[in-house]
Design brief:
5-stranded parallel β-sheet; about 25% strand; two-stranded antiparallel sheet; alpha/beta
């Protein structure tokens, strides 16, 4: 039986998706990916995730909308948001939905690895 924690990465930018998935995998997580809102919905209904990394915009839909639509499926998950929007309003929208960390674009693998490791250590 695989005891690794499940992680879902939601992003329509293939490079960011691959970077985040690779980083999460290196941290020992079992990684699933979704590059459309429909795939994200399907994945969130399919299994429980301990970590969800969601982009602020996925094919014209905000990460907040995805989280709102599936509120019951993300309970207890640690939520991390990718965004280039550093506004307090955006931060507050996601924090109200349980986001614990923000990864600001452009992303670097060392910075992402460091932030995610710190977060996972904190919630372990």
């Amino acid at each position: 039986m695989d005891l690794r924690r499940n992680c879902l990465v939601i992003d329509d930018d293939k490079i960011a998706l691959k970077l985040a998935a690779s980083c999460c995998h290196e941290l020992g997580l079992k990684v699933y990916i979704a590059d459309t809102p429909t795939e994200a919905v399907d994945e969130l209904k399919r299994r429980r995730y301990e970590l969800i990394v969601v982009d602020h915009h996925v094919h014209g839909i905000s990460g907040c909308e995805i989280l709102d639509h599936l509120r019951s499926h993300v309970r207890g998950a640690t939520i991390v948001v990718f965004t280039s929007d550093t506004s307090e309003a955006t931060r507050a929208m996601y924090e109200a939905r349980g986001a614990m960390e923000f990864l600001y674009k452009p992303l670097s693998k060392p910075a992402m690895h460091f932030k995610l490791k710190m977060l996972l250590d904190r919630v372990a």
